[in-house]
Specification:
317 residues; alpha/beta; five-stranded parallel beta sheet; 11 helices
Length: 317
């Protein structure tokens, strides 16, 4: 049996995640511990526990942050209400929202200013959805899945547009928009595609690998929407089986019965060290032949938040 690994590229950290994690690390270095972070800075348990060890304290809401302290907002973005709460507690805020999420917030504000109905495609309860919807709560209706698109009701006399969470399945979002446009021909598109470049690129890579794979292993956490989607997309595109794991130690012997080709990728909030650990585990099991399948090259970088940049400059760092 010719055992091999097809390794997806790109995979792992996107520019928005890298910026958010570096923001927490630089804030700890500049201000000293503790630095408070509202919600998980990115959806990955390894990253969160590593930052906790360095002195970051993760909280669910701003009222858990002592008055006058520093609080960092996660990459997923927050609503204006959260900014107001932080201000009322005299908190120094550093906003690590991914610029691609900020773009969707701006689109929501613009549509709301024109008094449009906004159909927001996304997952109920996801922090990014809560932040975007919070920009225009009276205008937004959440569309969670295809059934949501089939059943939503709008005011036919008012203009309507759609937006989406940045980390969804590209295919399912297009299908959802298709259903909405069939029902509401007047539905307007956002000025540009909302699904983030990194989510799309990782899905394209896994689609190329999936038809050849007996087993797909995606490194990522269960609350990471884009990581969960990678497994779903792999199975849709022909992988015989697929699993989402946080660590190499979670792989199970029974997954490897009759498996020749393994596809490996990782979600956009996963550090490369975890992928290296998985490749080492697979090599131990005889899967030493690793071939990289490159769907695209990524060169995007985002500057750290301006409020932190200013303080670093003042401190000569």
């Amino acid at each position: 049996m010719a055992k091999r690994v097809l390794l997806a590229a790109p995979r792992g950290y996107c520019a928005g995640v890298d910026r958010a994690v570096v923001t927490v690390e630089k804030a700890l270095d500049l201000y000293g511990a503790p630095v408070y972070v509202r919600k998980q800075i990115v959806h990955n348990i390894h990253v969160v526990s590593s930052l906790e060890k360095k002195g970051a304290i993760f909280v669910d809401e701003t009222d858990q942050v002592p008055e006058g302290s520093i609080v960092i907002f996660s990459a997923h973005g927050v609503s204006p209400k959260v900014h107001q709460e932080a201000s009322s507690r005299n908190l120094k805020t550093i906003d690590a929202t991914c610029p691609l999420v900020t773009k969707v917030h701006q689109e929501a504000k613009r549509f709301a200013a024109d008094d449009m109905q906004i159909l927001l495609i996304g997952h109920e309860g996801h922090e990014e959805v809560e932040g975007t919807a919070g920009e225009a709560p009276d205008h937004v209706k959440l569309i969670d899945g295809l059934d949501g698109a089939r059943n939503v009701e709008i005011d036919p006399k008012r203009p309507v547009a759609w937006l989406s969470q940045t980390t969804l399945s590209v295919d399912e979002t297009l299908e959802t928009v298709g259903i909405l446009k069939q029902r509401f021909p007047q539905l307007q598109d956002p000025p540009s595609d909302d699904i983030c470049y990194a989510t799309q690129n990782r899905q394209v890579a896994i689609k190329q690998i999936a038809p050849q794979a007996d087993l797909i292993l995606v490194v990522g956490s269960r609350n990471s929407s884009n990581s969960v989607r990678l497994v779903e997309v792999a199975l849709e595109y022909g992988a015989k089986s697929g699993h989402l794991i946080d660590y190499a130690s979670e792989v199970k012997d029974e997954w490897f019965d009759g498996v020749e080709t393994i596809g490996v990728s990782s979600g956009a909030s996963v550090p490369e060290i975890l992928v290296k650990d998985l490749l080492a585990e697979l090599a131990r099991r005889g899967y030493e032949d690793v071939e990289t399948v490159t769907a695209s090259e990524e060169h995007l970088l985002f500057a750290i938040p301006p409020e932190l940049r200013k303080d670093l400059r003042a401190a000569g760092k």
